[in-house]
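Q: Could you write out the predicted structure for this multi-component system? I'm mainly interested in how the pieces pack against one another.
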Amino acid sequence: MSYFSDIYKGIKTLLTGMSVTGKYFLTSRKGAITQQYPDNRATLKMFDRFRGEVIMPHNENNEHRCTGCQKCEIACPNGTIEIIWDRGIDETTGKKKKKIDQFVYHLSMCTMCGLCIDVCPTNAIEWGQNFENSVYDRTALTRVLNKPESKLQPGVED
Amino acid sequence: MNISLSITKNIHDWLFSIMPESVASIVEMVLIGLLYLVIFAILGLFLVLLERRIAAWFQLRIGPNRVGFQGLLQTMADALKLLSKELTGTTKADKFLYNLAPYFVIVSSLMALAVIPFTKEFHAFDINIGIFFLIAISSIGVIGILLGGWASNNKFALIGAMRSGVQTISYELSVALSLLTMIIITGSLQLSEIIEIQKNGWLIVQGHIPAIIAFMIFMISGTAESNRAPFDMVEAESELGAGFHTEYSGMKFAYFFLAEFINMFIIAAIAATVFFGGWLSPFGITESIPWLGVFWFLGKTFVLVFLMMWFRWTFPRLRVDQLLTLEWKYLLPINLVNIVIMALIVWLNLTIQF
Amino acid sequence: MQETTIDKSFKTEPYQINMGPQHPATHGVLRLVLTIDGEIIKKVEPDLGYIHRSIEKMCERDSYQQIVHLTDRMDYLSSHINNEAVCLTVENALELEIPERVKYVRTIIGELTRIASHCLWWGVMGMDVGALTTYFYGFRDRELINDIFEETCGARLTMNYNVPGGLMFDIHTNFVKRIKDFIAHFKTKLPEYDRLLTGNVIFQKRTKGVGILTKEDAISFGATGPVGRASGFSCDVRKHHPYSALDKVTFNEALKTEGDTFARYQVRIQEMWESLSIVEQLIDNIPEGDFRVATKAVIKLPKGEFYQKVETARGELGVYVISTGAKSPYRLKFRSPGFSNLSLLNHIAVGGKIGDLVASMATLDLVIPDIDR
C-alpha cells in the first residue's frame, strides 16, 4: 500500500512546491527584485559609506586637507596611492614644509580595503559613492586626486 | 492516400480554376508548407519569449523588456544573432551526421505540427491515423538528438544523447498508452473525429477519473518526451554543460532550440485536442463562429504550455535512473490498469455525456 | 570475474571526462577529472590551482592590518568571519582587551554572513539539482543582508570591516532596525524554502542516501562545518571554543547522523535558524562603548606561534601565525575548510552517477578561492 501513499505524498509535495512559485508568479508585478540599472540612475543612491572610489574633497577655496604625510601610501597593501611631494615655504610661518604636488590614485589597483582612509590623520581623503568606473582606456583609472593649483587648507596639521 | 487539404476553400477553388489540377495541387502544397513554416517560426520565437517572461515572473525578475515593445522582438533579435554566427564544429566530428542531426529534429517537429487541428477548417493533414502518426513522428526527433550527440565527438554530448535515447524510448510507451486510453472512448484515431465526439463533453469529462489519470500521465511523459525539465537529462546544464548540442552553434543550435519549444507546443496541443476538446468552446458558446475555434485551441494549448513551464521552473531534475524508475515502476503499470478501467467504463456505459 | 572468454570487441572500458574548469556545477574554476563507466563514477580527481593567488605568501609581506583585507578574497562568502579570524589572532597575541560592543557587532555580522552564505548555497544547491528558481529566492534574501552590510561596512562582499583592535568604524544608525526587519522577513521566507525544495519528492529522491560520509571518515578527512556535522561529528567551533560574543548566547549545534547529501542540506537549513536566533539574542543588547581600541600604527606581534580558529559558513578556518617579532608574520598558514571538504569528494562520489556527484558537490558548498587561496 506504501506504493500508492508514496504517489499521493509525492504529488502533494510537488503541488506544495508549485504553490510557492505560483504565488510569486501572481505577485510578480510588484515583487521584482532586480533593478533596471541604467534606467534607475536618477533614483539609485548608494549608501554614504559605500566604497566606490577614493576622493579628496576640496573646499570652495580650492583647498584640500592633505599634508603629504604619506601614511596612506604606507598603509595601502597594493601600492594604489603614490604621493609626489615637495618642500615648500609655509606662508604663515615662513618655515619649510612638506606639501603635495600630486596625489596619484590608481583606481585599477585599489581593493577598496579602506586602510588609507582609516589611517589618514587629517581626513583628507574620503570614500566617493561613484561606482561607474568602467572606462575604455585603463590609464583613465589613474587619477590625480588633488585639483590643479589646489593648496593645503590652513590650520591642518598632522 | 486519403489526404484532404482543407485550409481555405476559396484559395483552393481559385487555384484550381486558374491552373491544371496537378499543378494546382503542388502549388497548394507549397503554399501550405510555407504557411506552416511561418507558423512554426513565429510560434517558436513566441514560445521562447513566453518561456523567458514566465520564467522571469516565477523568479521575481522582469524578463526581456528592451527590444521592441515590452521586449516582444527580443527573440527575433536573438534569432538574427544566431543566424549571423559562425557554424563551428569539432575537427574529428562525423561531418555528415553532424550536419544532418538538426534537420531530423526540426523536420520531425514540423511534420507533427501538420496534423494538429487549429480549428475546424484549419487542418493541413487530417489523416485517419492522426494520433498514431503523431506518436510515430515524435519518436523520430530522438534520432536527431542521438546523431548529434554521437557525431559531434564530445563525451558530454554523447552522454546527453544516450540519456535522451533511454528517456524517449521509455516514455514513448506512456505517451502512447495514455492516448490509447482516450482512444477507447473515441474509437477513432482521426483527430477531427476525436474533436467531433467531444461535442458531447470534453474527453476529460467524459472519461472522468481514468481520463484525469491518463491526462496526468500524458503530461508527465509528454514533458519527458520533449526533454524539458524536470526531465531534461539530455541537457542537464549543471551536469553536462549543454548536453547533446554542446558542439552546435549558430543556426544549427537554433534548430535544436526551436524544435524543443515546438515539441512542447505539440505535446500541449495534443493534450488540448484529446483531453480538452481542441478548438471546441466550452458548452458550444461560440459554435456559430467557427474561426473563434483557433483562439480556443490556442488558449487551451497555452494554458497547458504554461503548466509545463510551471513544472520546469519549480521542480528539481530527476536522476537518470529515477527517470526510468518513474516510467517503468509507476507510470507504465498505472497506465495499463487505467486502460482496463477505461475499457470497463466504456463497456458499462459509465461515461459522462451531455 | 574472468574475461578470457569474452570477445574483446565487446569490452567496455571507463573513460575520462573533464568537468571544469569552466563548468556550471563546479562553481568557479575547479577542474574535476572524472573517470566514468557510462554514468557511474569510478574516480574523481580534483585539479586545483586555477585561481591560486599566493595569499599566504603575500601575508608574509604585508603588515597585520593589511593581511585582514586579503582574507576577504579567500572565502568571499564569509569574508567577515575570515577577517575576524585574523583580527582575533592578532588581538590574542597582543593580549588586547576588546570592548564588548565590538564582540557583539562582530558576532552579529558574522552570523548574518553565515545566513547570507547559506542563502546563496541554498539557491545554488537548488540550481545544481535542476530547480532554477531557488537561486533567485535565495539571492533575494541574501541581498537584504548585503544591504545591511553595505550600509554599515561600505561594501557588500569584501567588507574589511574588522581591524586588529576592533571595527573600522561604528555601526550605522539604521543597523539595528534593518536587522530586525530582516529577521521578521526571513522568518516568513525560511519555511518557504522548505516548502519549495526540502519537501519536494524529487529533491529528496535525489539527495537521500547519496554521497554518504561516515563519522569516522569525516574525522579522518578533516571535514568540518556542516559537512562534518551532518555525519554526526560535533565540530562547531562556536560551541566548543566560543569566540567574540558567542559565549553569551544559547544555540543548538545542528547535528545529523545520516551523513548523506540530504543531511548536509538539513544541517545548513537548521543553521540558518540557529544563526537567526543568535542574532535575535544579541541585537537588542549591543552594549554602548568604544568600537575600537587603539593599536600601534605598526603592529608587531611578540615572538612565537599563534593559532586561532573560527567557524566560517563552510567549517573551521584556522589561522596559524609564526612571528619573529617583525611587522609582518614569518609564516602564516590558513587552514581552510573548503580544502579538506574537497578532499573527500572522491570518497563520497565514487559509485554514484554524474547527477549524484553534482548533488553531493553542491552540499560540500565549495568556494574555490578558499581552496586555492
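A: Regarding packing and overall arrangement: Chain C has one domain: 52-372.
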